[in-house]
Protein backbone atom coordinates (compact mmCIF):
# COMPACT_ATOMS: atom_id res chain seq x y z
CA UNK A 1 0.00 0.00 0.00
CA UNK A 2 1.39 3.35 -1.08
CA UNK A 3 0.18 6.78 -0.01
CA UNK A 4 0.36 9.29 -2.88
CA UNK A 5 0.51 12.58 -0.98
CA UNK A 6 2.74 15.57 -1.45
CA UNK A 7 3.62 17.82 1.39
CA UNK A 8 4.07 21.58 0.99
CA UNK A 9 7.77 22.21 1.52
CA UNK A 10 7.04 25.46 3.32
CA UNK A 11 4.23 24.80 5.72
CA UNK A 12 3.95 21.03 5.73
CA UNK A 13 0.28 20.97 4.70
CA UNK A 14 -0.77 18.27 2.27
CA UNK A 15 -0.82 19.52 -1.32
CA UNK A 16 -1.02 18.21 -4.85
CA UNK A 17 2.46 19.30 -5.81
CA UNK A 18 4.90 22.06 -4.95
CA UNK A 19 3.75 24.88 -2.68
CA UNK A 20 0.21 24.70 -1.32
CA UNK A 21 -2.23 27.39 -2.63
CA UNK A 22 -1.92 29.44 0.59
CA UNK A 23 1.84 29.55 0.33
CA UNK A 24 1.71 30.35 -3.40
CA UNK A 25 -0.76 33.19 -2.80
CA UNK A 26 1.40 34.51 0.03
CA UNK A 27 4.42 34.46 -2.24
CA UNK A 28 3.14 36.74 -5.01
CA UNK A 29 2.33 40.42 -4.87
CA UNK A 30 -1.27 40.97 -5.81
CA UNK A 31 -0.78 44.66 -6.37
CA UNK A 32 1.82 47.22 -7.37
CA UNK A 33 1.28 50.94 -7.76
CA UNK A 34 3.38 53.54 -9.50
CA UNK A 35 4.25 56.09 -6.83
CA UNK A 36 2.70 58.95 -8.80
CA UNK A 37 0.66 59.72 -11.85
CA UNK A 38 0.43 63.12 -13.54
CA UNK A 39 -2.90 64.50 -14.71
CA UNK A 40 -2.83 67.51 -17.02
CA UNK A 41 -5.90 69.72 -16.95
CA UNK A 42 -6.97 73.15 -18.14
CA UNK A 43 -7.55 75.51 -15.23
CA UNK A 44 -10.04 77.57 -17.25
CA UNK A 45 -12.44 74.98 -18.66
CA UNK A 46 -11.46 71.78 -16.80
CA UNK A 47 -10.58 69.89 -19.99
CA UNK A 48 -8.31 66.88 -19.45
CA UNK A 49 -5.32 65.96 -21.53
CA UNK A 50 -4.75 62.30 -22.40
CA UNK A 51 -1.53 61.85 -24.32
CA UNK A 52 -1.63 64.73 -26.76
CA UNK A 53 -5.40 64.93 -26.93
CA UNK A 54 -7.60 67.29 -24.99
CA UNK A 55 -11.16 66.46 -24.17
CA UNK A 56 -13.94 67.90 -22.07
CA UNK A 57 -14.27 66.15 -18.76
CA UNK A 58 -17.54 64.25 -18.90
CA UNK A 59 -17.30 62.58 -15.50
CA UNK A 60 -17.42 63.71 -11.86
CA UNK A 61 -14.05 64.53 -10.32
CA UNK A 62 -14.12 61.58 -7.92
CA UNK A 63 -14.59 59.18 -10.84
CA UNK A 64 -11.63 60.77 -12.59
CA UNK A 65 -9.51 60.38 -9.43
CA UNK A 66 -10.49 56.71 -9.19
CA UNK A 67 -9.70 56.17 -12.87
CA UNK A 68 -6.29 57.82 -12.55
CA UNK A 69 -5.46 55.83 -9.41
CA UNK A 70 -6.45 52.58 -11.09
CA UNK A 71 -4.37 53.51 -14.14
CA UNK A 72 -1.32 53.66 -11.83
CA UNK A 73 -2.07 50.20 -10.43
CA UNK A 74 -1.18 46.76 -11.76
CA UNK A 75 -2.90 43.67 -10.47
CA UNK A 76 -1.36 40.21 -10.74
CA UNK A 77 -2.64 38.36 -13.78
CA UNK A 78 -3.65 35.28 -11.79
CA UNK A 79 -6.04 37.29 -9.63
CA UNK A 80 -9.72 36.51 -10.01
CA UNK A 81 -12.96 38.07 -8.69
CA UNK A 82 -11.24 41.44 -8.41
CA UNK A 83 -12.84 44.23 -6.42
CA UNK A 84 -11.13 47.62 -6.32
CA UNK A 85 -11.87 50.52 -3.98
CA UNK A 86 -10.12 53.86 -4.08
CA UNK A 87 -9.97 56.28 -1.17
CA UNK A 88 -8.53 59.68 -1.83
CA UNK A 89 -7.41 62.69 0.11
CA UNK A 90 -6.37 66.12 -1.09
CA UNK A 91 -2.88 66.51 0.32
CA UNK A 92 -1.95 69.78 -1.33
CA UNK A 93 -3.20 72.34 -3.82
CA UNK A 94 -2.13 70.11 -6.71
CA UNK A 95 -1.81 66.73 -5.04
CA UNK A 96 -4.25 63.95 -4.25
CA UNK A 97 -3.11 60.88 -2.36
CA UNK A 98 -4.99 57.72 -3.21
CA UNK A 99 -5.17 54.42 -1.39
CA UNK A 100 -6.10 51.61 -3.74
CA UNK A 101 -7.48 48.51 -2.05
CA UNK A 102 -7.87 45.33 -4.05
CA UNK A 103 -9.68 42.23 -2.89
CA UNK A 104 -9.41 39.14 -5.08
CA UNK A 105 -8.84 35.41 -5.04
CA UNK A 106 -5.48 33.90 -5.93
CA UNK A 107 -5.37 30.12 -6.54
CA UNK A 108 -8.70 29.91 -4.74
CA UNK A 109 -7.40 31.77 -1.69
CA UNK A 110 -8.99 35.15 -0.78
CA UNK A 111 -6.40 37.93 -0.66
CA UNK A 112 -6.46 41.66 0.03
CA UNK A 113 -3.76 44.28 -0.47
CA UNK A 114 -3.51 48.04 -0.53
CA UNK A 115 -1.06 50.42 -2.13
CA UNK A 116 -0.70 54.15 -2.42
CA UNK A 117 -0.28 56.44 -5.36
CA UNK A 118 -0.25 60.16 -5.69
CA UNK A 119 -1.94 62.19 -8.42
CA UNK A 120 -0.04 65.32 -9.41
CA UNK A 121 -2.38 67.86 -11.01
CA UNK A 122 -0.64 69.90 -13.65
CA UNK A 123 -2.21 73.02 -15.13
CA UNK A 124 -1.94 73.74 -18.83
CA UNK A 125 -3.98 75.99 -21.06
CA UNK A 126 -5.92 73.65 -23.39
CA UNK A 127 -6.03 73.88 -27.17
CA UNK A 128 -9.43 75.58 -27.08
CA UNK A 129 -8.60 78.12 -24.38
CA UNK A 130 -5.34 78.91 -26.18
CA UNK A 131 -7.33 79.69 -29.31
CA UNK A 132 -9.77 81.87 -27.42
CA UNK A 133 -7.08 83.80 -25.55
CA UNK A 134 -5.13 84.14 -28.79
CA UNK A 135 -8.14 85.87 -30.34
CA UNK A 136 -8.74 83.12 -32.90
CA UNK A 137 -12.17 83.04 -34.54
CA UNK A 138 -13.66 81.94 -37.85
CA UNK A 139 -16.79 84.00 -38.09
CA UNK A 140 -19.25 86.50 -36.69
CA UNK A 141 -22.99 86.03 -36.68
CA UNK A 142 -24.72 89.40 -36.87
CA UNK A 143 -28.37 89.41 -35.92
CA UNK A 144 -30.30 92.41 -37.22
CA UNK A 145 -33.91 93.18 -38.10
CA UNK A 146 -35.40 94.56 -41.31
CA UNK A 147 -36.34 98.27 -41.15
CA UNK A 148 -36.72 98.26 -37.40
CA UNK A 149 -34.71 97.73 -34.27
CA UNK A 150 -34.23 94.24 -32.96
CA UNK A 151 -36.22 93.88 -29.74
CA UNK A 152 -35.37 92.48 -26.31
CA UNK A 153 -37.21 89.23 -26.96
CA UNK A 154 -35.25 88.58 -30.17
CA UNK A 155 -31.97 89.44 -28.44
CA UNK A 156 -32.76 86.96 -25.71
CA UNK A 157 -33.83 84.19 -28.11
CA UNK A 158 -30.76 84.73 -30.32
CA UNK A 159 -28.38 84.58 -27.36
CA UNK A 160 -30.07 81.53 -25.89
CA UNK A 161 -30.04 79.66 -29.21
CA UNK A 162 -26.35 80.51 -29.75
CA UNK A 163 -25.44 79.10 -26.35
CA UNK A 164 -27.53 75.97 -26.87
CA UNK A 165 -25.93 75.25 -30.25
CA UNK A 166 -22.45 75.82 -28.79
CA UNK A 167 -23.18 73.41 -25.97
CA UNK A 168 -24.63 70.70 -28.18
CA UNK A 169 -21.75 70.85 -30.68
CA UNK A 170 -19.18 70.73 -27.89
CA UNK A 171 -20.96 67.83 -26.28
CA UNK A 172 -20.74 65.96 -29.55
CA UNK A 173 -16.95 66.43 -29.41
CA UNK A 174 -16.55 69.53 -31.59
CA UNK A 175 -14.21 71.27 -29.13
CA UNK A 176 -13.45 74.31 -31.24
CA UNK A 177 -17.08 75.27 -31.72
CA UNK A 178 -16.87 77.90 -29.03
CA UNK A 179 -18.43 81.32 -28.73
CA UNK A 180 -15.63 83.68 -27.79
CA UNK A 181 -17.81 86.77 -27.62
CA UNK A 182 -21.53 87.47 -27.49
CA UNK A 183 -22.29 91.14 -27.61
CA UNK A 184 -25.43 93.20 -27.42
CA UNK A 185 -24.78 96.12 -29.72
CA UNK A 186 -26.97 99.09 -30.55
CA UNK A 187 -28.05 97.44 -33.81
CA UNK A 188 -28.43 93.86 -32.69
CA UNK A 189 -26.45 90.90 -31.43
CA UNK A 190 -22.94 89.96 -32.56
CA UNK A 191 -21.77 86.41 -31.89
CA UNK A 192 -18.11 85.58 -32.48
CA UNK A 193 -17.63 81.89 -33.26
CA UNK A 194 -14.64 79.54 -33.29
CA UNK A 195 -15.77 77.47 -36.28
CA UNK A 196 -17.78 78.06 -39.43
CA UNK A 197 -19.84 75.02 -38.56
CA UNK A 198 -21.00 76.76 -35.39
CA UNK A 199 -21.72 80.02 -37.24
CA UNK A 200 -23.84 78.22 -39.81
CA UNK A 201 -25.77 76.20 -37.22
CA UNK A 202 -26.51 79.28 -35.11
CA UNK A 203 -27.71 81.20 -38.20
CA UNK A 204 -29.98 78.33 -39.22
CA UNK A 205 -31.44 77.92 -35.76
CA UNK A 206 -32.06 81.64 -35.19
CA UNK A 207 -33.79 82.14 -38.55
CA UNK A 208 -35.71 78.92 -37.91
CA UNK A 209 -37.01 80.29 -34.61
CA UNK A 210 -37.48 83.96 -35.47
CA UNK A 211 -37.95 83.89 -39.24
CA UNK A 212 -35.95 85.92 -41.73
CA UNK A 213 -32.96 85.03 -43.84
CA UNK A 214 -29.20 85.03 -43.62
CA UNK A 215 -26.45 85.59 -46.13
CA UNK A 216 -22.78 84.64 -45.78
CA UNK A 217 -19.88 86.93 -46.57
CA UNK A 218 -16.45 85.29 -46.55
CA UNK A 219 -13.31 87.34 -46.26
CA UNK A 220 -9.83 86.02 -46.84
CA UNK A 221 -7.74 86.86 -43.79
CA UNK A 222 -4.55 84.93 -44.43
CA UNK A 223 -3.12 81.48 -44.56
CA UNK A 224 -2.68 78.78 -41.99
CA UNK A 225 -0.53 75.73 -42.69
CA UNK A 226 -0.79 76.33 -46.42
CA UNK A 227 -4.59 76.66 -46.40
CA UNK A 228 -6.46 79.85 -47.12
CA UNK A 229 -8.08 81.12 -43.96
CA UNK A 230 -11.48 82.75 -44.27
CA UNK A 231 -13.60 84.53 -41.78
CA UNK A 232 -17.27 84.52 -42.53
CA UNK A 233 -19.85 87.10 -41.56
CA UNK A 234 -23.27 85.51 -41.22
CA UNK A 235 -25.64 88.38 -41.75
CA UNK A 236 -29.08 87.58 -40.35
CA UNK A 237 -32.05 89.79 -41.23
CA UNK A 238 -35.02 89.12 -39.05
CA UNK A 239 -38.30 89.92 -40.80
CA UNK A 240 -40.10 93.19 -40.19
CA UNK A 241 -43.11 91.29 -38.87
CA UNK A 242 -42.68 88.80 -36.07
CA UNK A 243 -44.55 85.80 -34.79
CA UNK A 244 -47.34 87.04 -32.58
CA UNK A 245 -47.66 90.46 -34.18
CA UNK A 246 -51.25 91.59 -34.56
CA UNK A 247 -51.83 93.58 -37.72
CA UNK A 248 -54.71 95.43 -39.29
CA UNK A 249 -55.57 94.42 -42.84
CA UNK A 250 -58.75 94.42 -44.91
CA UNK A 251 -60.64 95.92 -42.01
CA UNK A 252 -59.82 93.08 -39.61
CA UNK A 253 -57.24 92.01 -37.05
CA UNK A 254 -54.82 89.18 -37.75
CA UNK A 255 -52.20 87.48 -35.63
CA UNK A 256 -49.02 86.60 -37.52
CA UNK A 257 -48.21 82.91 -37.05
CA UNK A 258 -45.45 82.44 -39.64
CA UNK A 259 -43.39 84.61 -41.92
CA UNK A 260 -42.48 83.20 -45.28
CA UNK A 261 -40.59 85.80 -47.29
CA UNK A 262 -43.11 88.53 -48.12
CA UNK A 263 -46.07 86.38 -47.18
CA UNK A 264 -47.54 86.22 -43.71
CA UNK A 265 -49.48 83.23 -42.50
CA UNK A 266 -52.01 84.73 -40.17
CA UNK A 267 -54.84 83.82 -37.85
CA UNK A 268 -58.01 85.85 -38.27
CA UNK A 269 -58.81 87.13 -34.78
CA UNK A 270 -62.47 87.64 -35.69
CA UNK A 271 -63.53 84.31 -37.16
CA UNK A 272 -60.59 82.11 -36.16
CA UNK A 273 -59.57 80.99 -39.64
CA UNK A 274 -56.08 80.74 -41.08
CA UNK A 275 -55.14 82.74 -44.14
CA UNK A 276 -52.24 84.34 -45.94
CA UNK A 277 -51.55 88.05 -46.33
CA UNK A 278 -48.90 89.81 -48.32
CA UNK A 279 -46.91 92.49 -46.52
CA UNK A 280 -48.45 95.09 -48.85
CA UNK A 281 -51.92 94.30 -47.56
CA UNK A 282 -50.99 95.18 -43.99
CA UNK A 283 -52.18 98.64 -42.99
CA UNK A 284 -50.58 98.83 -39.59
CA UNK A 285 -49.28 96.93 -36.61
CA UNK A 286 -51.04 97.22 -33.25
CA UNK A 287 -48.72 95.14 -31.08
CA UNK A 288 -47.61 91.65 -30.25
CA UNK A 289 -49.50 88.99 -28.28
CA UNK A 290 -46.50 88.76 -25.93
CA UNK A 291 -47.51 92.22 -24.66
CA UNK A 292 -51.19 91.30 -24.25
CA UNK A 293 -53.09 92.73 -21.29
CA UNK A 294 -55.61 90.90 -19.20
CA UNK A 295 -59.18 92.19 -19.28
CA UNK A 296 -62.09 90.99 -17.17
CA UNK A 297 -65.08 89.57 -19.05
CA UNK A 298 -68.07 91.50 -17.68
CA UNK A 299 -70.80 89.87 -19.74
CA UNK A 300 -71.29 87.60 -22.70
CA UNK A 301 -74.35 87.62 -24.91
CA UNK A 302 -75.05 86.34 -28.40
CA UNK A 303 -72.84 88.28 -30.76
CA UNK A 304 -71.17 90.46 -28.13
CA UNK A 305 -68.75 90.35 -25.22
CA UNK A 306 -68.34 93.06 -22.57
CA UNK A 307 -64.77 93.63 -21.38
CA UNK A 308 -63.55 95.86 -18.59
CA UNK A 309 -60.77 98.01 -19.96
CA UNK A 310 -57.85 97.32 -17.58
CA UNK A 311 -56.72 100.95 -17.86
CA UNK A 312 -59.95 102.93 -17.59
CA UNK A 313 -62.18 100.32 -15.86
CA UNK A 314 -64.88 101.19 -18.40
CA UNK A 315 -66.81 98.42 -20.02
CA UNK A 316 -66.22 98.07 -23.72
CA UNK A 317 -68.29 95.91 -26.01
CA UNK A 318 -66.58 93.86 -28.68
CA UNK A 319 -67.88 91.38 -31.22
CA UNK A 320 -68.12 87.81 -30.01
CA UNK A 321 -65.31 85.61 -31.30
CA UNK A 322 -66.36 82.06 -32.13
CA UNK A 323 -62.85 80.58 -31.74
CA UNK A 324 -62.60 81.16 -27.99
CA UNK A 325 -64.95 81.06 -25.02
CA UNK A 326 -64.96 84.17 -22.85
CA UNK A 327 -66.36 83.35 -19.41
CA UNK A 328 -68.09 86.01 -17.33
CA UNK A 329 -65.97 86.95 -14.33
CA UNK A 330 -62.81 85.49 -15.85
CA UNK A 331 -59.92 87.38 -17.45
CA UNK A 332 -59.11 87.13 -21.14
CA UNK A 333 -56.04 88.37 -23.03
CA UNK A 334 -56.47 91.46 -25.17
CA UNK A 335 -54.40 93.87 -27.22
CA UNK A 336 -55.23 97.54 -27.47
CA UNK A 337 -55.71 99.24 -30.81
CA UNK A 338 -54.83 102.79 -29.82
CA UNK A 339 -55.94 104.26 -33.14
CA UNK A 340 -59.48 102.87 -32.97
CA UNK A 341 -59.58 102.89 -29.16
CA UNK A 342 -60.63 99.28 -29.23
CA UNK A 343 -59.72 96.10 -27.36
CA UNK A 344 -58.97 93.06 -29.51
CA UNK A 345 -59.34 89.60 -27.99
CA UNK A 346 -56.23 87.54 -28.66
CA UNK A 347 -57.23 84.55 -26.52
ZN1 LIG B 1 2.10 25.74 2.19
ZN1 LIG C 1 -9.52 75.12 -21.55
TrEMBL record:
Pfam families, per database record: NMD3
GO MF terms held by the record: ribosomal large subunit binding
Output the superkingdom of the source species: Archaea
Q: Name one GO cellular component term.
A: cytoplasm
Give every Nmd3 N-terminal domain span. Answer: 8-238
PANTHER family found in the cross-reference section? 60S RIBOSOMAL EXPORT PROTEIN NMD3, NONSENSE-MEDIATED MRNA DECAY PROTEIN 3
Name the UniProt record assigns to this protein: Nonsense-mediated mRNA decay protein 3
Source species of the chain: Methanoculleus thermophilus
